[in-house]
Amino acid sequence: MAHLGYGDFFCSHSHSNLHRISPVIQQVKNNCEGPVKSEDMKKSNYIIKSLVTGLISIGLLVSCKKDKDNSNDVVVIQANGDITAELNEFRQLLGSTLNEAPGAQGGRREVNWDGIPDSLLGKPLPQDFFNPVGNDPALAVRQKGLVYQSTGNFMVSNSGFAEINSQAAGQFNAFSGKITFANVNNELWDIAPEIPGEATAATVKGFGIVFSDVDKAHSTFIEFFGEKGSLGKFFVPARDNNSSFSFLGVYFKNERIRRIRVGHDGTLASSGKDISNGGTHDLVVLDDFLYDEPVRLQ
Question: Quick one: 258 and 116 in the same domain?
Answer without folding.
Answer: yes
